[in-house]
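The instructor's notes for this session suggest beginning with a concrete chain rather than abstract definitions. Hand out the sequence below and ask the class to guess, before any prediction is shown, which regions might be ordered.
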Amino acid sequence: MTRADLFGEAVRALDAHRLRASLSSIGIVFGVATIVAALAVADGARREAIDEIGALGIANVFVRAVRPADAPGDRTPAAPELTTADAGALRALPAVGATSSLRATRTEIANGGRHEAATLAGVEPGWQQIAEPQVAAGRWLVDADLAAARRAMVLGHGLARHLFGDSAPIGRRVQAGGNWWVVVGVLAPSVQASGRPSPVAALNRDEAAMVPLTAMDLSLGNGDRITRVSEIALASAPPEGVAQLAAAAGALMRRRHPDGGWELVVPRELLQARMRAERVFAGMLIGIGGLALFISGIGIMNIMLASVAERTQEIGVRRAFGARASEVVAQFAIEATLLAVGGGIVGVPTGVLLAALIAALAGWPIAVSAASVLLALGVAVGVGLLFGVYPARAAARIQPIDALRAP
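After discussion, reveal the predicted structure:
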């Protein structure tokens, strides 16, 4: 018999028992669906982690102020403990490239009748080298702005749209914190997989206004002085030395602030930890899908063994007319593989729908890739072959004379 003949025989045999074949494939459907959904969630989470944490710059180190607990009855929080003197000490560490202090607070920014509550952030020109924002229009802050404490402002993309709509903001004046500022630049939108601001970033630059640090005179809280800052950002030079820079910065800050009031954020370490956690989570889900496939494989093997018992005389007749044992093995192996492939074909869209449901209910990002679909289908085919071989070999071992005598 040719391969086409064997395939046709397998299709006809399954078509003759549609209900049994469908029921035996249900486990494959759920197993493949679980694997596809797990890989979609894991890949989506991986991309979001790269976007969120990678946007901070994996060659950067951040020293952030941790606000102390408010005193009872206080409505205004205490000002951060970090100072520009801390920034100067950190800047003197070896292997430090660009640096920038950040002094940020919430305020209302207005353009005529349009106003928006946003973050006003005082930064240094080096912040562009660290955060790498793209300027869509105008320019970024320069050293002369810092030296002269100019009322110059760079708007985030979203904030510019809120305040100016489709009109050009460059050269226009806005009011913030009781002062007038001239818009000198607008940033391009930051791209993130989830469309949400990063939970690990101190500043959502799409909805913020950046001004020279020396011109940022809004109060940060009780006990504030103009030297207080919210964050100190350092870029490692070379980038490979970020671990050593983080260790040196941590040791320096422990000497300067032994009582705390600060935390060290290393995006590279955050990304590595996030990826490890997501691999464990994805492995657990894939293990559940693999268990479902294993159980369904046992079901396919039982169905195929029952089919061999029912078709003993058929096998005997075929063997008596010259069918080789390898052809009998091939036919039953093809039947088992078709069961698995059929379940896989149904399981892939089921898995995509399951992943979309998870994204809708939990708000998690998903990303279905061709590699995950091929992996799930490959596992399903492997299950069909693995659990179809034993029944196929059992059928091939039947002697023609014994098969013809069977009731």
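Then share the key points. Residues 10 and 16 are 10 Å apart (CA to CA). Residues 67-260 form one domain.
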